Amino acid sequence: MAGGSSLKNMVVAFLVPLPSILFYLSFVRAGGDTGASPLASWCAAHPLVLANVLFFLNVDVLFWLVGLLLSNHWLIDLYWTVIPVMLLHYYRGHPASVADAARSAVAVALTWAWSARLTHNYLRREGWELGKREDWRFNEMRAQYGNTWWWMSFFAVYLSQQPWGVWDLVAAATCVAGILIAHFADTQLHRFVTRNEKLKRLGEPTVPTLEDGLWRYSRHPNYFGEQLWWWGLYLFAWNLGQRWMFLGPLVNSLCLGYVTVLVERRMLKQEHRAEAYKLYQKRTSVWIPWFRKAVPESKLKET
Where are its TM segments located (predicted)? Predict the structure, then answer.
């Protein structure tokens, strides 16, 4: 009886990922032809989003439905050992993929070795019978939630195990603010440059410095917005206990700080805007938007 059940589960395990695999193979077989259809064009242009869509529909939704039919969510345990390999080949086979052949081969071999070890450990633990038992945590939650477990299992087993909290809201708001600030700052800078180019073509004097909009309160509001984005991402990691990941945005900030110095040196070397930019430096915050300083008359004469 156990052997028959294991064979049935083996068939189920083989069939459940086929929708994503077949869809992706048909896309790859077409060579990522963006002219084939709007869907093919979208898939070629958005590999990361496509991977998440396939994962959600095939793993989160389909695995959950299969788990309800079997009254057992064992399937997800097996596939946690296999999905990384599938994702690896997904990205490696994507038409937009560009990789060093030797490095790619080593990464593939190591990922397969990791997956083989973990899969072997899983099967050995289960006595070489697929679906022999369900994760003990799922069993406890099944008993805890009773009749509501059928829908609670979708969130408890297949979606994020980390509850959304206040810090997640702060992180999300920081990221959104960063995107908006950087967008508006870059847009204002583009308009300023375009306007000066038009004035130059007309033979009229150009405006030496941009001091309107966000640029009135920060000399580099676009850089500030970019930093908000990266530090906002770090807040997500910090909330999950991965505090060491501050190194990423810190290095980014240090690099952008150096770029800021280079940009300002370049501005001061341009004769037509050097004096105006010196005054702009004295009045305006470097990165963080803030109220403008009142510069004394003596300081104005120094420029």
Answer: 12-32, 44-67, 166-185, 246-263
